[in-house]
Write a structure and sequence with these properties.
The complex is a heterodimer.
Chain A: H1 13-18, H2 23-34, E1 38-42, E2 47-50, E3 63-67, E4 70-77, H3 82-201, H4 204-208, H5 212-221, H6 224-256, E5 264-266, H7 268-283, E6 287-293, E7 299-301, H8 303-319, E8 325-334, E9 337-344, H9 351-354, H10 374-384, E10 388-394, E11 398-406
Parallel strand pairs in A: 6-8
Antiparallel strand pairs in A: 1-2, 1-4, 3-4, 5-7, 8-9, 9-11, 10-11
Chain B: E1 3-4, E2 9-17, H1 24-34, E3 44-45, E4 48-49, E5 52-53, E6 57-64, E7 70-77, H2 85-92, E8 97-103, H3 109-125, E9 135-140, H4 150-157, E10 164-166, H5 175-194, H6 196-200, H7 204-211
Parallel strand pairs in B: 2-7, 2-8, 8-9, 9-10
Antiparallel strand pairs in B: 1-2, 3-6, 4-5, 6-7
Helix pairs in contact in B: 5-7
Classes of the chains: A alpha+beta, B alpha/beta.
């Protein structure tokens, strides 16, 4: 049944006796035992060992060589006793059995290894498939997480925008008040001025008639000495009012940096002054601002964003006042950093709350008075500029907020 | 699969399958002791590890039919241990009949079930039609304590088409009965293929008797 790979196939005498190149050794051993006169033949009559020619003419009985239940060949020898020949045949059969064992086991072993390897490959393929499934799952999971993150980011951006609008709204209210004041007295002055112009126009007929007496009488009746003096004063006053409005608008422009949305090299001291100018209406009635501004290297950043930070800190300081107090703003250059420190002598923050002041939506103010995002946004902005923000406070003594920003590379 | 070779010899491969330590090798040893020497070769037991089969055991049997056909039976055992599945598959390959040797001890029920499932799977893998494969189930070790009762065995295996034989191979009972039951089944298949009775003058009784040296 001839499939060579099948371990339990039938084997010829040649394979059973001579596999592994044992022919020479067997011939030599048998020759030593039996001399020249012997042979081993297979079932088909082929001589495998010895030479049948040497036995010619001698009457010798051949012995069957059996393997399993079959006779697979024969053995004959001339110059030996029957016992010796039987012993040699037995030895040959032992060699055949041992060879058969070896051949079957080695071929079975190879087949088993092939089968095990095939099973392993099957298992491997199944594992790869399940790995691919998990990878696909992981990818879709990552995608879903990314989507959630995008949603959260969008919501946060929106909230930050709300916070900014709230701050801008407060600011606008203060500004409106500040602008309303000069506008109010300029308007009142202009009404008065219109009356003064009417008084002057009333003198015109007397001037044209060259009636000096009547002119003199009308001049003093209308008290034009006073009118001219006051007219001059109110024009000066109005000009100063207009100047004030112009300055407020210019401060506001500087604060919002409407012209500049990209980053640039900034003078932080100038920024702080602009912010204080804008914040003055809301701060003035609660605290005096004192400056101690040291020389600073320029900081590379977004003026509008950083101004938002400073405004937030200064307004917080003002709101911390239980009675009229003092806000000290210091700046120092230190170790490649621009350091700004705002110290107030307000009510301070209890230790338990201090750890949470940067948490989003944490606020101690009444509902509607603050979003609880002011310091959160401030910290985000400072970090986006490569800096950090810290807060220390002692209840009843005051609070210090420190902002550190790296100076611009060109300025180092 | 049995087939003639060029010298009109027929080789039949029979495999003793079953869980580890269920007594497959003992079955072959008892057969070797029972069958007369003229009808059998030497029992070849391959290397063992702590008395457990690593590769296989082989007992060759044979006789000549009235027609002159030389019928040779090769009885193999497989290694029962789970780890040797590749070897088990190679030995099972091209089998003409299978004895499944189960261990009657209650503690071994699970191992019996797993091994039987393994037999069915491996038969499919080596291309044997398990539903058509001549198979005899032997419940061995009936002499031990705490064994599954005969009623339980009949209840479970009575529904199947496979003959169930109770045996105690260590004591020699049931071994020949199992083997002859398999021979009858194998004869049915081979008679259809090779016309044993018609062509070779070999009836079932004669086939079974000759195979065990009777």
């Amino acid at each position: 049944m001839g499939e060579p790979s099948v371990f339990d196939r039938d084997r010829s005498l040649e394979e059973l006796l001579l596999s592994g190149g044992a022919r020479a050794e067997l011939e030599e051993a048998l020759g030593g035992l039996l001399g020249q006169g012997f042979y081993v033949r297979d079932a088909a009559g082929r001589t495998l060992l010895g030479d049948a020619g040497h036995l010619a003419g001698e009457a010798t009985e051949a012995l069957a060589l059996r393997y399993g239940v079959e006779t697979v060949g024969e053995f004959a020898a001339a110059g030996a006793t029957a016992n010796e020949r039987a012993a040699v045949a037995q030895l040959l059969q032992l060699v055949m059995r041992l060879n058969a064992r070896y051949l079957m086991v080695s071929e079975l072993h190879a087949a088993a290894i092939d089968a095990d390897f095939a099973a392993l490959k099957e298992k491997h393929a199944a594992l790869e498939q399940s790995e691919a499934r998990y990878r696909a799952l992981t990818e879709s999971l990552e995608q879903r997480v990314a989507e959630q993150v995008r949603t959260i980011e969008a919501a946060r951006t929106q909230l930050y925008q709300v916070e900014k609008m709230a701050a801008v709204g407060q600011l606008a209210a203060g500004m409106a008040h500040e602008i309303n004041n000069p506008i109010g007295f300029v308007k009142s002055n202009l009404t008065t001025a219109r009356g003064y112009v009417a008084s002057l126009r009333a003198l015109a007929p007397f001037v044209r008639a060259r009636d000096a007496g009547a002119l003199e009488a009308a001049w003093s009746r209308a008290d034009l000495d006073f009118v001219l003096e006051d007219f001059d004063a109110l024009l000066r006053e109005s000009a100063a009012g207009a100047e004030r409005v112009a300055r407020i608008v210019s401060d506001l422009k500087a604060f919002s940096s409407v012209d500049q949305t990209a980053r640039e090299n900034l003078d932080l001291n100038a920024c702080i002054r602009a912010v204080c100018n804008v914040a003055r209406p809301q701060v003035a009635e609660r605290a005096d601002i004192e400056f101690d501004l040291g020389p600073l290297s320029e900081v590379y950043g977004n003026a509008a964003r950083l101004n938002e930070v400073f405004l937030n800190i200064i307004l917080n300081a003002a709101q911390a006042m239980e009675r009229r107090g003092r806000i000290l703003i210091e700046t120092r250059g230190h170790d490649g950093q621009a350091v700004m420190r705002v110290t107030d002598d307000g009510r301070g923050i209890p230790a338990a709350l201090l750890a949470r002041v940067f948490d989003p939506f944490f606020t101690t103010r009444e509902v509607g008075q603050g979003t609880g995002l002011g310091l959160t946004v401030a910290r985000d902005i400072v970090r986006a500029h490569g800096g950090d923000i810290a807060i220390e406070s002692t209840p009843g003594v005051g609070t210090t907020v420190t902002v550190r920003l790296p100076v611009a590379a060109a300025a180092r | 699969m049995a087939d003639y070779d060029e010298q009109r010899r027929l080789a039949i491969k029979l495999v003793y399958y079953g869980p580890a330590l269920s007594g497959k090798t003992t079955n072959l040893m008892r057969l070797h002791d029972t069958v007369p020497a003229r009808a059998r070769g030497e029992l070849m037991t391959l290397e063992t590890q702590n008395d457990r089969t690593l590769f296989f055991d082989l007992l060759p049997l044979g006789f000549t039919a009235p027609s002159g056909l030389s019928v040779r039976l090769k009885l193999f055992t497989v290694p029962g241990q789970v780890a040797h599945d590749g070897t088990r598959k190679a030995v099972l390959s091209r089998a003409d009949g299978v004895v499944f040797v189960a261990d009657s001890q209650r503690s071994q029920s699970l191992n019996n079930g797993e091994s039987f499932e393994n037999l069915a799977n491996n038969a499919a893998r080596v291309g044997l039609d398990f539903t058509q494969l001549p198979l005899v189930v032997q419940f061995n070790k009936r002499d031990l304590a705490d064994i599954v009762s005969e009623e339980e065995i009949r209840a479970r295996w009575g529904q199947t088409t496979w003959p169930v034989v109770l045996a105690s191979a260590a004591l020699g009972t049931g071994v020949m009965e199992t083997f002859t039951a398999l021979l009858w089944r194998v004869y049915g298949t081979l008679d259809r293929r090779f016309g044993f009775a018609a062509t070779h003058g070999l009836a079932g009784e004669a086939f079974v008797a000759a195979a065990v040296g009777g």
